[in-house]
Amino acid sequence: MSSRKKRKLGENGVDEECSSQLGASGDTGIPRIRLHAVANKQGDKRDDVEMPLLGLGTYKFKKDAGEASRAVLDALSVGIRHIDTAFVYAGEKTEIEIGNALSSAECTVPRSELFLTTKQWRAYHGYDATLKCLNLSLKRLQTDYIDLYLIHWPGPAYNTMARSKDVIEQSPDGPFCYAKDGHGKNNIKALRADTWRAMEDAVFEGKCRAIGVSNFTIRHLEALRETARIWPPAVNQVELHPYNPQTELVAYCRTHGIVVEAYASLGGQDSGKKTWKTLGGPLSQRAQVVDIAKKYNKSPSQVLLRWATDQGHVVIPKSTNPKHMKENVEAVSFIDWKAGLDENDMTLLAELDQSQLNIDAVRLCWIRDPLKHLDFE
Asked: Is 243 an annotated catalytic residue?
């Protein structure tokens, strides 16, 4: 099995090999990566949209518990300037908490120094619905613009949560038999195109600095390309870790100038004991990870984050612990850990690749969605 070579960030942070990173966030040494972004309908490129390679993920914070607000303020206190959220998180409450935190007296970081990502939810696929979703997010986040706006999921919204496996297996439409009106198998591709068109117009109106996608396969990206005015998407945020390195998708994204953003870098929060048994245990407990951590006097989590950022991927680990947040900064920082992982480390971690297994085993997120395989147009 081939190893994954350590990548040094080039001018666009995606496809070039050079000896210096694009830039760094404040005094933390967190590298930043330049995103593809346009300034107007004529397609003139802008070169001022730079995304820190480390952000705070906000998935699965407790609803109405103040966790998201506290975590954002703690993250800012240790030098993190990139916050990743989504319209739907915590029953649509997380964006509100983040907005309250960023507008509070306790937040002393100017908006211009923050990089804020949120995601359009699939129930709002379509042109008008997407603009409505974006405007709601802007209101909740108490901001005039989003730095990066993503399509959260390429598939349909469902008309019920009570989906029968037997019904799905017997239906010629598979899981699409439960799709919301207008989200059917024959409509979803065009619906995504309308969603993207709305996002493009939001860029032209100054409501988004850059736009991208999440959970898109090569097939979905190629479909989007057919009608896109803004191409490529700035980012494709996907599940990515040593068990599931998404080699083919990463190669495609690099070729087209799409930054890969990894979620579930540490193994995700949705998997159970059966999955871990199939894979050989949680990533942080695997001998390769533990041995490398001891070699550098780092934690297994720090090794896993650096594995991603040394390849030029963005990471967004969730944490409510300021100590862990600081460790996350130190994991990716060119100040705290200048050299990062060496080629031998990358070769050892490549041994963890389980993508030869069936997708049920290596898919650690979206496990309850009948379209988690993403095998649709």
From this structure: no
